[in-house]
């Protein structure tokens, strides 16, 4: 009898442990009862923002990426600096580069009106990234939800190299994505987000003037608006996808095959290395790219979320509740 009771206790412990683990996982219907209007509210606000400025689709997608790669998808990138706190927004990969914070604030305020204190800013980022992609004719996917917001952010972590710079080598890209649980295939697919959006001259100046694996006409065209001298025209923009910068498609990969990648970290994906075959495949098969991109976005959204009683649900995305 004692042995039987012991076995029963162990079994119950396993059930409880398993239940605890499963409850900490993200779910596509997390807010279906607590905030049924969430998805339509976010979609409407994102649609308004992207209709005002098409580039915002890329900006919101990038915000989610830069959030997830630093200590997980916890909304930490949204925390504003204060006189006593320095967050991630002025880190090297983010400073004068990431944008769209006011759009997330607007979405949050609208969501708070329909269900106050329920939905995290981290989840709003994840939904906005998906909606942005769909609005510019990209793939759709079911966003897993249930993330909670961090109470702090780390400038040091954001500066630590976890976010690959535009000068990254292929090996650095693979290594940094693998460190976040993403495969080389995921990395190549997620790089396809550069089918939309713009980059600043300072991020591609060295490539268009110094590199040889670049189409000469393409380089000359980019040089017209990006002077070779440092600190000259640094903020001038160029489309990451020279063909269809306003639409989410597979032209990014077609550009790479023609040596028309804008950033060093773009063209390095097709430069005689291990990613060449996948780039060529995506350049010929838009459906395969769309499917792999959606799958990789779901994986990226699963990076180290705060769940259950961890973190908090911020009232305002730019500051923790303790300072509200």
From TrEMBL:
Its main location: secreted. Binds 2 calcium ions per subunit. Ca(2+) 1 binds at residues 67, 70, 72, 74, 76, 88. Substrate binds at residue 164. The active site is at residue 66. InterPro entries: Haem_peroxidase (IPR002016), Haem_peroxidase_sf (IPR010255), Peroxidase_pln (IPR000823), Peroxidases_AS (IPR019794), Peroxidases_heam-ligand_BS (IPR019793), Secretory_peroxidase (IPR033905). Heme b binds at residue 194. Ca(2+) 2 binds at residues 195, 241, 244, 249. Residues 25-321 form the Plant heme peroxidase family profile domain. Disulfide bonds join 35-115, 68-73, 121-317, 201-226. Its cofactor is Ca(2+); heme b. This is Peroxidase. It comes from Linum tenue.
